[in-house]
Every structure is written in structure tokens, then in C-alpha cells.
Specification:
By secondary structure, the chain is of the alpha+beta class. The protein folds into 2 domains: 2-127, 60s Ribosomal Protein L30, Chain: A (2-Layer Sandwich), CATH 3.30.1330; 137-247, PurM-like C-terminal domain (Phosphoribosyl-aminoimidazole Synthetase, Chain A, domain 2), CATH 3.90.650. It has helices at residues 42-59, 75-92, 162-170, 184-196, 229-235; strands spanning 2-6, 9-13, 18-28, 30-31, 38-39, 63-71, 100-103, 114-124, 137-142, 174-179, 198-202, 220-225, 239-247.
Length: 248
């Protein structure tokens, strides 16, 4: 059995054909308890926390097989709100909520909301899109980086959705997709270039803030075929060219 750590993913080869992909995320001090710093309904804190882990796994090409939630609070009523939020996000992602398992804290009183999520997926090696850029490509961002109060609790067309990720995964013109986290688009782009062994050249004039936090993976970057960039821009919303991957 071979185990690799790439970006925020753990990749475990379980046989000649299959790989387990693991990602996690946590959220603390965001919710409706007295000690929370950022007051939002607990349901939404849970939704966006599980979204990060889901996005990491499905962008790799893997199918989710298990979601675990570690709720660092009592079941009634914080835990129930967390589970409800997770199930809502699983429904949006088209994932059966029977994959969900978890635990709560019943021994001690807590004053701040704490949530830990682990997403586990499986993919065949030929469908894995991690370090999968084999030729020069254009890096684009899709969706806009948003964080905190900028994030709408209802449908927001500026935030990338699961249907878009699915379409990107199915396109032979998209070599690799990476969710943007708190370190921003520029950081994820630099890591993508380095991990794939390419030299990176950023576009001179950028239409998106490449250093802004992507919050709960509200946008992604993708390495796409140089010759198909016009089709990518036409077929998807909120697409910005970030830079170019060139051979060393």
C-alpha cells in the first residue's frame, strides 16, 4: 500500500487500479453559541465546512464514499443543526447522506461551535486528476473568491457550484482542477505549476484578486488546453485567465 500527500489531499493506493482520496476541514468559533466570534446560523457553518472537504475530493476525480463529522458540541441542539447543514450540502452535491457518520461531545458544556469534517473518496488511477498536467496549459480561475459576510446563504451565481465541477471533470480539455482555499488563487496556481513540473508565467493584467481568500472553496483554478481556452470562457461563468504553464 502506497500513501502520498499532495496539496491538502492524502492519496492511498489500495491496489493496482484504485486510489482512496482523503481531505478534511475544520471550523471553530463560527456559529450561534455564546463564545462564537462570527455569528451565523450553525446550519450554514456546517454546510460550508463540509463543502471544502467535498470540493477537494471531487476535484481530484474521486467519488465520495464516506463523510465523517466531528461535532465538538452537544447533539441537542448544535449537533442537530450541524447534521442538518451537512445533509443539505450533500443533497446539493448529489451525495447520498447514508455516507455520513460522526460523533458529538456529551460530557462537557461547550461555549463555542467546533466542527471537523473528513471526506473520503475513491477513484481509478486512470481518472485521477492530481498532478495530471502533461503539456503546456492555461490556468484559469472559475468563480470568485469570497469569504465571511460576502458569502450569500442562498444561491450565488458568482460561487462555483457542483454542476460546474462535474462539467469540468468531464471535459478532456481540462487537465486538473484545484479548489482555492484561504491562501488565494496565486498560491494555488504556484503550487499547481510546481507540483506538475512547469514554469509559471502570470498574466500581466488580472481581473480577479489572486491573493484574496477563497473562503469555503467559492472558486477553483483549472489547467486547460491552450487551444480550447475560448470554448472554456464561452461555456462557463466567471472565468478569468490567471497565467500560463510552460516547460522548463
Amino acid at each position: 500500500m502506497e500513501v502520498k500527500k499532495i496539496r491538502d489531499l492524502s492519496l492511498i493506493s489500495i491496489d493496482e487500479n484504485r486510489i482512496i482520496v482523503i481531505a478534511c476541514d475544520s471550523c471553530g468559533g463560527i456559529g450561534m453559541k455564546e463564545g462564537d466570534t462570527f455569528k451565523v446560523p450553525t446550519i450554514y457553518a456546517a454546510r460550508f465546512t463540509v463543502r471544502v472537504a467535498i470540493m477537494e475530493v471531487i476535484c481530484s476525480g474521486a467519488e465520495i464514499i464516506t463523510i465523517t463529522n466531528a461535532v465538538c458540541n452537544e447533539m441537542n441542539d448544535t449537533g442537530m443543526a450541524v447534521i442538518k447543514g451537512i445533509k443539505e450540502e450533500l443533497m446539493l452535491a448529489g451525495i447520498n447522506d447514508m455516507t455520513l457518520t460522526g460523533s458529538t461531545e456529551e460530557n462537557f458544556k461547550t461555549i463555542s461551535t467546533g466542527i471537523g469534517i473528513t471526506a473520503i473518496g475513491m477513484v481509478s488511477k486512470d481518472k485521477l486528476k492530481v498532478n495530471s498536467v502533461k503539456e503546456e496549459a492555461i490556468i484559469v480561475s472559475i468563480g470568485l473568491p469570497k469569504v465571511g459576510h460576502e458569502i450569500s446563504f442562498v444561491k450565488d451565481d458568482e460561487i462555483i457550484d457542483y454542476d460546474t465541477i462535474c462539467k469540468l471533470q468531464q471535459s478532456k480539455d481540462v487537465y486538473e482542477i484545484v479548489p482555492v482555499g484561504s491562501k488565494g488563487i496565486a498560491y494555488e496556481t504556484e503550487m499547481l505549476a510546481r507540483n506538475n513540473g512547469f514554469k509559471l508565467k502570470f498574466k500581466t493584467e488580472l481581473l480577479v484578486d489572486t491573493h484574496k481568500s477563497g473562503g469555503p472553496s467559492t472558486c477553483v483554478i483549472a489547467a486547460v488546453d491552450l487551444k480550447k481556452i475560448d470554448e472554456i470562457i464561452k461555456d462557463f461563468n466567471n472565468v478569468s485567465i490567471i497565467g500560463y504553464l510552460m516547460k522548463n
